[in-house]
Amino acid sequence: FIAEDSLKNIWIGTDRGLATYNRETDDFTTVTFEKQRINPQSFVTMHDRILFGESGRLFSFDYKSEKLSMLEATDNPIKNEMINNLALWRSGESEYTGKVIITCKWTGMWLFDLQDQTLKKISSINESNISSSYIDSSDRIWVAPYGQGLKCYSKEGKLIHQFSTSNSGLSNNVVLRMIEKNNQLWIATDGGGLSVLDLNNFSFRVIEHRPGDPYSIPVNSIVSLYNDDEDYMWAGSIRNGLIGIKEIYIKTYKEVPLNTPYGLSDKTVTSLFEDPSGIIWIGTDGGGINRFDSTNKTFKHYPSTYGNKIISLSQYSNNELVCSVFSKGLFLFDKRNGSFRKLEIWNATESNRIFNSGYSVNIALLDKENLLLLADTPYFYNYKSKKVEILPSVNQEVGIWYPQKFHFNEKQTHLIAGNSIIEIDNRKKTIRTLISLPDSIRNIEAFCKDDENYFWIGTSNNGLFQINATTKKIKKIQTQLFSGVTSLISDSNGRIWVGTHNSLFAYLPSENKFVAFGESDGVFANEYVNKSTLLTRSGDLFIGGVNGLVQIKNTIPFNDFPEPVISLMSVELDGAICNIEEGENTLSIPWNYSTLSLNVIAQEKDPMRKKIFRYEIIGESHELISSQSNSLTLHTLPSGKYRIMASCLGRDGNWSAPVEVLNLHVKGPWWKSGWFTALYLLFFVT
User: Fold this and answer.
1) What CATH number labels 1-123?
2) What's the predicted TM-score (pTM) here?
3) In this structure, are residues 354 and 390 in contact, taking their beta carbons and an 8 Å threshold?
4) In the 8-state DSSP scheme, what is residue 563?
5) Which of 23, 141, 270, 554 would disulfide-bridge 539, Cβ 3.0–4.6 Å?
């Protein structure tokens, strides 16, 4: 085990004994009692001490005296048995009664009184071969006899619940550790991953390894659990190291082998569509059509469509989708059996002219009978009459050629054509120029419209623009986070999601701020595709890119992100750790040093977020260094005094306030010192 007490001492329990970690010297000190090593297997922290459980005895480290003492009952029936678990015994709402519950594997559970050092068997809980025990916030006692699942006793010792794989959702009967978090009991098992028990309704959910699923845990044998101060859960596995577990609201689905249910048949997403039953249909760049079920988070691939580049998808009938396939034309896809057949709406010559132009033909279902096709000009295809009509233009100057940036709703279609925003009236089947864009908006890459009647335009090198559809007023959104935009979509809460060549951001118009998302949020490096966006009826977002499909839950929280708290961790001079008093951060070094390295830490709510640091060296000269490393190495600073400042890039794209992490004095050589100069002058005068 690893434990931190109230004095911030780090205790490490191993098979070879107990040790403490020394931050100043970066090494360990073996803990002894009466010159003998102790070998505890359990601990519990208290307000005035930390207790360790060994073979039939307790060791107490007192915070006030900072001394270790032994506690052992005079009449000790568990003298030769290891104490596997310690827990504080509470009375009602009070935190502590002066008694500790001891759990031994074979002799069961005992109550130890710290005041008179007496030991009493809890006879009402008659269990043996106990692999784990736990007392929850409601004072229920949870006991896991090895291989028998989980039993729950009241404080009075009455059996009130019993769970196993045969009568509940418990994933494995071998329970190795338990911990409570947010009124849920997290249960580590040997082979079944993690079972999470809701203490309100006593239902289970399972977190387990699933081959091919990148969002499952890597192994199913978990031996320890720890919930840190930032509410992150950490799991220690038997053979696969430490696992950090964080609840995320964004997932990135990537390419997987064909017919694997946890990802795409091709890594690039070219189109998205939600059918009336809530199934998400995905067009890929050569991998055909994929089906995604949001309920069970699984994919289905259709080999009959493999090899086709699906440009656009829409509804054709209750059982069929209509698909625009690059350079091949329109096809009908049967959702029931996966069959794929050509839909001929033009003669061969006309179809070849339209679909073999080298451009993508996009489609959208406007109502139950009419399909809009955006090709060399907009077309309407009527399902019922099987007729195609060219859309008449209200403004003769409007020219549309295979538009790729567009936004559909029931009444209108808006699209980018040249340097204009074009509006199509879907019901009247008319077209007009709505807004002519100024010369400052060029190289348009992405386009969307929100519910507040604003257009949003993303450019390849000039950032993001907002346009009021009523007043035609244009506003540039200022940010240093990006200059090029490749994808835009508005969610049901008015936030604008901005995809770039490598990153994903959310813009909050009401607060005029951006939030950046990274790997710790479930977002990986991706170049987002301008028309592969979808807002589902549930409010979830899907954003496609060159390297996968991103799903964003509508419940994603946008809490305040306080500035990271930056502090100095350690300083090394020529490879040796410098002893710096906490809070002082002052150091003097000789002029002829070789290497000075300092390490900082930025503490924030998300410890898994990759951070970018900026260091300022203020002294004889001023230097600014940006780095993804929390370590700064200085080789040749001239003699003088320096202040080394550090700041961290926040999730909103702003740098935190610089913090002085080290006040450094590089001493001059002895022959340049004042005493040597005075001595030299005295000698010269003499």
Assistant:
1) 2.130.10.10
2) 0.86
3) no
4) P
5) 554
